[in-house]
Design a protein that fits this description.
Helix content of chain B: 25-40%
Largest sheet of chain A: 11 strands, mixed
Strand order of the largest sheet of chain A: 5-6-4-3-7-8-2-1-10-13-12
Shape of chain A: elongated
Structural class of chain B: alpha/beta
Oligomer: heterodimer
Order of helices and strands of chain B: HEHEEHEEEEHEHEHHHE
Strand content of chain A: 25-35%
Number of helices of chain A: 11
Largest sheet of chain B: 7 strands, mixed
Distance between the termini of chain B: 46 Å
Structural class of chain A: alpha+beta
Radius of gyration of chain B: 20 Å
Distance between the termini of chain A: 143 Å
Number of helices of chain B: 8
Number of strands of chain B: 10
Shape of chain B: globular
Amino acid sequence: MCGYRLLLGSILFVFSIASDTFNEEVVLRPFQDGKVGAHFEFTVQTPADAILDRAAGEFAQHYDLFPKSLGQILYKFSVHELHLSLTQGHWHHNMWGYDSYPSPTGVQMWAWFLPDVSDSETKWRGLTSTLSGLFCASLNSIDETITAVPKFSFHTDGVSPSHTNRSSCLRYASLTREAVCTENLTPWSKLLPCGSKAGMATLLNALKLYDTSYHSLGIHVTLKCTHHQACKPSELIMELKHVLTVVFDPLRHGQPKRNWSLKSLFGRTVKSLCPLSDNSTLYIDIPPEDEVEFSPMPDRRVRHGLTELAEYELNARGERDATLAFNVAMKWKDVFSYPKTPHPSPVVAHSYVSGYGQESGSLHIEITNTAEGSPVNAAVLQLIPWYFRVYISTLSVELNGKPVTIARQLNYVPAKDHLRPHTLELLVDIPSESTLHVIVTFQKAFLKWTEHPPDAHHGFYIPSAAISFTVNSPAVYPRSSSSFQRVYTEPQLVTLATPDFSMPYNVICFVCTIIAIAFGAIHNLTTKQYVVESRDKPSKLSRLRQWLKRLISRKRTEPQASGSEQ
Amino acid sequence: MWSQCVGLFFIGTFLALSKGDSVHTNNWAVIVCSSRYWFNYRHVSNALSIYRSVKRLGIPDSQIILMLADDIACNARNPLPGTIFNSAGERLNVYGDDVEVDYRGYEVTVENVIRVLTGRVPSDTPRSKRLLSDERSNVLVYLTGHGGNGFLKFQDSEEIANVELADAFEQMWQKRRYHEIFFITDTCQAVSMYEKFYSPNILAAASSQVGQDLLVSHNADLEIGVYMIDRFTYYTLRFLERVTPTSQATVAHLFHSYDPSLVMSQPGFRTDLFRRDVGK
């Protein structure tokens, strides 16, 4: 009876498996300042009904190209959307435009939990600890002291199971101090269907990737519909995107023209195709004003908004040519000259800290809308650690230097010592060609001696501010695949007053020395008893007389002794 | 009745024979570099040299716990990012392109080392950060950093004492978390770290005697600007690079391979707690 049921179940299972899909895409974009940005996207899509159907149990999901280790983590912690990025460097919006998957320096992570989860805190802690083992990063140091629940700045990028964007299901945290190196790239690429052994991932040479001014790794898991309308659970797919963005500098060694090739940037060519990928495509952004030459010639030219792209399809080449050593070179006709008037992106943001001394300071966020004729509605999110005591009464918003009343909405969650950070969220309207300035003052707290990290003199970080806005104009490329376009500001490094860590040792030395020297005297004082002598002391004159007598009697005895010897 | 007796006799014999055998089935390694800051490049290089060797000779990443207290390969001061070399001459990139660091940065603390060794980790610790050894595991424990007489310094802010380490190993023995331990330490006055061990089946090797400082580091590379590896580990790596998975080299060969004039200190070894003969 049991065996019959198992057989039936397995037959049904086989019929219900839809195949996973895997696509690889690389976009290479030359920037105005001579740098070249490379953006890798590896997308795996798998049917998601088993992940969401909790009644079916943990083992109902069949894993083909979607990595089982990640899928099981998402199931265990009831996560339907996860975004994790590890970045070093700062994206220069004024020169490089927008990134499809923008990320601030360090680690940034946010996750949406299923609506029926009641203990989001425990699940968030579990998720960060488990992912720290998976990605070899210190994600387990994300705890409630740096986690926030933003209300306006994030929406689900995919489908939300309950069709509501309840912010209570969202957790967001940022670790600015985290380093990124080959030890993070290794487990990230091991989650790919072909690993780093075949396909576009063979270009990822750590020695070249980490010798750049900006590099970013990311994992983005979202729920998507196969059709564009609200769909049934059986039509849901879970999409995993591995994203890697890196900005190279071909002019670094002093050459006059910014020619580059895959071999010169990555040190490698694409040697083989990943047989599991359905599409492997490489795009190169064709600059509208300059004369460039590609070798080999692109398969076709496509248009995306106002940008023209050269497209190379690797699947077709791989099938034609068994030994694929695919290398693309871009040659420029003119010598490079740094642009005198660069075209900045429509929205550019910066932040900085002002003030002096160890007592207080101010945090400034400056957002500039450079576009003409299109105002921007933006949500500004700033997390501030609890040891910077923010005075919300000092919050001031200035537009082009003139104070304005805080526009639309403010969400401020004050910090609690050792429990949660300050969350400051503003919804602002920035008119075209103007600058918005948000200023808030804080006082620096004294941390206890044991709360300081081992390198306390390095300082403490205030994470980047996230400015999220919707983009309407098609001129902005690449269009963000998420509902918002995001711009991050620079992280801030602030020194707090640090104690002299050698003082406990010094105090022990001083106290022990004092005790050692004073011990003898105090011991004598406390343990010996002083007794008064009763005998009268003779006067000085009588003492002198006695001494003379003794002297005379000695002289008398000596000649008598010498006389008797004779 | 008669067949049952014969069956019991065979089972009894089998049990009696297998009880006395030392059954070694798996290997683990715990490799710790406890120093922070760029000028301690050589300690990270030491730890990665050993990591590279044990990984090459067969211990998988899932059974190696690597703790590096600072990021040296992608440090802003590293003129060759993504690399950590073992010497100016040979330029062997011990960091490589397939490396998994389990505890890094601020996580490398005395508390975490003791927790990993004794198994008392928090409940949400992922599997790759746990030492899941059992009574049939041979565990390699390698510590490197700045040390003194009886202690090893962690991140310039705390110390682990030799008695703490001895107690941790005793806890491991009582909880049957190891079959044999090979303890190697490369610090100043390293012999003091193993003096207090009292649990059985521990083989220990140290780079320098009490009163000897492990001064010098093998050579400095003028481009990188810091000392790149310590001499004891450099010669250990040289020995291990010649070892293949099928080689017949023994621990005694390793111990005899050190030349005190080249290592520039007197390495110390402790074999009294170790039941087997190191020559086999």
